Amino acid sequence: MNHYSRRVCVICAPEMIDRPNEFTSLSDFQEGRLLLIDKPLEWTSFDVVAKMRGLLRRALGVKKIKVGHAGTLDPLATGLLIVCTGKMTKRIQYLMEEGKTYTGTIQLGATTPSYDLETEVDAVFSTSHLSEKILLEAAQSFEPGYMQHPPVFSARKVGGRPAYLAARKGQDVKLDPRYVLIERFTLSSVDLPSVGFEVECSKGTYIRSLAFDLGKKVDSGAHLTALRRTASGVYHVKDAMTIEAFEARLNAL
Length: 253
Known about the structure:
The chain folds into 2 domains: about 5-100 and about 235-250, no CATH class; about 100-230, 2-Layer Sandwich (Pseudouridine synthase). About 30% of the residues lie in helices and about 30% in strands.
C-alpha cells in the first residue's frame, strides 16, 4: 500500500480499517459506519449517497441522517465509493486524502472535449507510428508526477461554479494545472488503438486528463473509454457491496 494510505489511515483510527461494512443494528448507522460500495455505471456519487440516505431514513424512521462519500467518481466510472454515515462523516476529509488505484481502457487516435465518452469525438489522429514500446515508455514518463490540467468538463470550480456548466454551454473555460503524483502507471494490455491500464495516484488526479496527456505524449490523441476504481487507501473494491446488497442487508435487520 502506498505511503499516503498508511499515513492517512493511522489518522483515521484503527476501527475504520478493521471493520468496514460491519453493522448489526439500525442504530449503528447513526453512531457511525464506514461502508464500501461498488458504484454502478451511470450513477453519480451523489446518486449513491442519496439512495442510501433514503433507505436509511425509511429504515430508521427519521427525517435526517448524515451520509457522505469520500471521493467523487464520474458517472461513467464504476468501482469503490467509500460512504460514511452518522459520526463517521467527520472522518471524510481524512479518507479523501488517501491514494487511489484505478484500472480502465484508453482509446488512442481520437480525442473528445470531455476526455472520455461523455462527449463526441472532436479530432482524429494517426496511430500508425505507435508501438507497445513507445506506449510503455510514455506511460512511465508520467511517474512520479506532473503538472496536470483538469478536464473542462469537470466539477472543478470556476468563479464558484462547476466548470462543466460553462463547458456544456460552449463557453471558454480555463483551469489552472495542479501537480499530481503518479506512483505507478502501467499498461496491462496493448491492442491498438486500445490499451488497458492500471494507475496508482494521489487524490485530485483526473484519469481522463492522464489519458488525454498520454495521447499528446505519443504524438496522437486519446480518450478514456472505461474506468474502475479498485482501491482507495487500504480499502479495495473486492470488499465492496452493491447498492442492492446493502438494501437487502438493511431490510434484514
